Amino acid sequence: MNENRRQILEMLAAGKITADEAERLISAVEKEPASSASEANGSEPRPKTKAKYIRVVVDDNGKGTGATKANIRVPMQLLRSGVKLAALIPKAAQAHVNDALHEHGVMLDLSQIKPENLEELVDQLDELTVDVDDKDVKVRVFCE
Amino acid sequence: MIPYAAAIRIRNEQSRGTQRWIIPFWLAGLLLLPVAVLLLPLTIVVCAVARINPFPILHAFWQIFVALKGTVVEVDDPHYSVSVEVS
Fold it and tell me: Structurally, how many domains does chain B consist of?
């Protein structure tokens, strides 16, 4: 047993951390040597593959409640094209859209959004994972 | 690569009937071509009056169409099941 794992278990035994926290810490400690091992070997880390699709999966939590299920796969390229279209909104229309957004409590200024920012935003979606567990439905949003 | 067809499936869970359509985009384009020709003069006039350059908009829509390839939407309801796949 390595030193880090022992310390985590000691903290758990002393009641300083909960079992959940201990589990998270142990998994974090286990991941660390794997990534540092590849660096130590001198082998280049594998290039991260870019996500091609964004998936939305709505399931009924396996209880057979008869809830609507959905499985949606949208190409990331479609999001990129969509945001490019949004960037074409004329300046005169932007003021109206801003007003409407403000009325609904969304403090967003469309004039401040540049196509390159939106491009960056879509690129960052690679890391996105949303899990929602309700009593009837389970929703997962992720990229693949 | 431009998408070439959309496959639509609608299944009625009560009657157990399934309807399937495969719509080739070239055929849809061909059928919509007369409508596009009719709308073209109107579009030109509207763009000229509103001082809008239609080409960036057309380009953006074309990009959206091209990006549709690989889109899958499946919705299962206790009564109906709908699936749309663009390939």
Answer: 1
Q: Please give the structure tokens belonging to residue A104.
A: 């609904």
Lookup result for tokens 């309807």:
B19
Sign of the Cα pseudo-torsion (A114, A75, A77, A130, in order): positive
Return the residue in A55, A69, A118, A139 with the most chain B beta carbons within 10 A, the one to mutate for interface testing: A69
Domain that holds residue B70: 5-86
Give CA–CA dist A20/A43, Å, rounded: 34
Nearest CA in chain A to B50: A90
Tell me the pLDDT tens digit for each residue of A64-117: 667 788 999 999 888 888 877 777 777 778 888 888 888 988 887 777 777 677
The predicted complex's ipTM stands at 0.80
CB contact under 8 A, B71 and A78: yes
Distances (CA, A) of A34 to A45, A50, A74, A116: 11, 21, 32, 35
pTM of the predicted model as reported, rounded to 2 decimal places: 0.66
